[in-house]
Amino acid sequence: MKVFAVYELILALLVGSPAAAQTSDSGSYFANWFHRVDKTQAEQPHWITPLFTTTPRLEEEFRSDITWTPTPAGDNLNYGSGKGLEMIPTAHTEIILGVPPYQVPAQGPAGGGSIPLLLKYRLFASNEQHSNYIVTAFLGGSIPAGRFATPYGSITPTIAFGKGYRDFDFQSTLGWTIPTGGRKSSGTPVAYNTAFQYRVLRKLWPELEANVTLWPNGGTKLVGQKQVFMSPGLVAGRFHLWGRLGMSIGAGEQIAVTHFHQYNHAKVLSIRFPF
Known about the structure:
By secondary structure, the protein is mainly β. The protein is built from 4 helices and 16 strands. The protein has a 12-stranded antiparallel barrel with strand order 1-3-4-7-8-9-10-12-13-14-15-16.
């Protein structure tokens, strides 16, 4: 509940700021919503969102992923994978209201997982006509709920950045997850992700990601461990559907390259509807 209170405060500050209050009172805040979104996105690079690395770009879309994780008993399925509705309420911010993932294990009953939330604040950005880069700060969190939820909530401060050159770009995040309890067993893992992308034929974005997690502390099974995945994938889009609505679709696989890994060969199908 502490995490939920933090997000209530953040959203109150966003919506209740003097500028937002003034535009809301005049009735123009929501009327100018898409104009503000277009202006905000025009000021940043127009790369595609990677499969596993959270993009530093500000997005307005609905996203849902399906993940297959092999186990000796069969595949564990995760519908949603913690994705959800992404909105740009102000010129430099994005909020992601995650949909609780629905998990179907190979054996046993299905159930939901923790509710994810994320706030982005874009610090610096320049589009492809200029320096083609972006730097963004994140504040992520989770609320325990559902059969497969973690015992405690968490807060994850993150710095994200990216740089492009013609049809090539990389996007990176560095984050530190701080559980609200149980840190002696779970630790405070540090995650570093980088996605390398190259645009082909205007709509195809083959990529290779490095997904790294370090446990500097935690229980005896985790302390000092390092987990690294190399994750090839392909994202296609953005395709125009109707009006502002578009669609992107991608697929990839996480392949463990370290001796220690909590899973291996997890496959993902990602569908996004930008608007």
